[in-house]
Amino acid sequence: MEIPVLGWQAIVILVVFGVSLLIATYSTYAERVVAAFLQDRVGPDRAGPYGLLQPLADAVKMFTKEEFFPGGANRALFVFGPCLAMTTALMSSAVIPFGNILQFGSNVFFLQGIEVNIGMLWVFGVVSLGVYGIMIGGWASNNKFSLLGAIRAASQNISYELAMGLSLIAVLMISGTLSLREITLQQSVAGEWHFWNIVKQPLGFIIFLVCAFAETNRTPFDLPECETELVGGYHTEYSSMKLGLFLFAEYVNIFVASAVMSVIYFGGFNFPFQYELRDWLVAHQDWSLLAAQNLITILGTLLLFGKIFFFIFFFMWVRWTLPRFRYDQLMRLGWTILIPLSMVNILITGGLILAGVIK
C-alpha cells in the first residue's frame, strides 16, 4: 500500500508540532528541577510522583484563570500578539530534519515535515517574525513597562540576528547549501564526529550559541522581561492562556534553537560508527540492509533528541548560574564584539577554503 507523500508530510508536521508542545510543557518542569538542583533545594514534588504532573497542573491553572483586558488596550491585537508568537515558534520546527529516511517496501519516508532548499533561511525568517508578536503584545497592552519590554526585545533581536546570520555564512561557505538536510548529510562522511561542523567552525558555533540566548530572551539576555526593572516586561498585563502562549513560545524557541545547533554543528541525526554498526548487523546478525538502515535511522533520531535535550539543559544551567547583563552591555556585546568576530570568522574560513584545509 503506497502512502501519499503529502499525507505523510502532514502526519510528520502534526507529530513535530505535538512533540514541540510536549517538550515546551515539560521544559517548565525541567527548569524547576534544574534550578532546585543547582540551588540545593527540593523542586516540585506535590503534583504526582516526583512532581511529574506539575506541567498539567500549570496548564489547568492557565486555562481556568480569569481573562483580563487592561483599560485602553487594543483587544484584537492584545489577543493576536501571543498567538503570533506561538505560531511562528511552531512553524520554525517544520523544516528541521529529525532523522534520515525510513523505508518499508516501496514507501520511503523522510522524518522531516518540509524539505526545502532554503531551510536555514526559513528558520531565520520565521523566527524573525516572532518578535512582531512581542511588539504587538507590548504595544497593545497600553502599559509603559510592556512597551519598554517590547522595544527592548525588538532592538535585541535585530542586533543579535546580524551576528547569528554572519556566523552561519561561514557554514554556508563550507556546505554550499541552505538546506538543513543537505548540511546534515554532509556531516555523515564515514559517520565520524570529526566531520561535524563544530570541528570546522568552533568560533562560529560560540557566536551562534551566544546569539541563541539573546534571540530566545533567556538569561543573561532576558532584558525584555526583566522583572527588577520592568515588572514582567512585554507580558506584564497578560493572564490566563495568553500569558501561557508567550511562555510556551519561549520554550518552543529554545527547543528549535537547540535543534538547529544540533543539526548545523553537531551532525544532526548522524553518530559515530553508524555505518560500521549497519554493516555488522548485515554481516553477523543476518539483518537485511533495509532493516539495518531503518534501525540506524531510529537510533539517529533518538540521539539527535539527546543532543537537543543537552542544549535545553545548558540553557537552563546558564539561567541559574550567570547574572543578567545591563542593557548597554547587551548592545555593546552584540555590535562591538560578536559582529566583528563573525566577520573575522568569515575571512578565516574563506582563507582556509582557498588553502584547501577545509573542504
From TrEMBL:
Keyword ATP-binding: no
Assigned EC number: 7.1.1.-
Gene Ontology CC entries for this record: plasma membrane
Superkingdom in the source lineage: Bacteria
Topological relation to the membrane, as annotated: Multi-pass membrane protein
Membrane-spanning ranges: 6-29, 77-99, 119-141, 162-181, 193-214, 251-275, 295-318, 330-358
InterPro entries, alphabetized: NADH_UbQ_OxRdtase_su1/FPO, NADH_UbQ_OxRdtase_su1_CS
GO molecular function, one term: oxidoreductase activity, acting on NAD(P)H, quinone or similar compound as acceptor
Compartment annotation: Cell membrane; Membrane
Catalytic activity field: a quinone + NADH + 5 H(+)(in) = a quinol + NAD(+) + 4 H(+)(out)
UniProt keyword annotation of NAD present: yes
Keyword tags: Cell membrane, Membrane, NAD, Oxidoreductase, Quinone, Translocase, Transmembrane, Transmembrane helix, Ubiquinone
Principal location class: membrane
Family per record: Belongs to the complex I subunit 1 family.
Subunit description: NDH-1 is composed of 14 different subunits. Subunits NuoA, H, J, K, L, M, N constitute the membrane sector of the complex.
Annotated protein name in UniProt: NADH-quinone oxidoreductase subunit H
Gene it is expressed from: nuoH
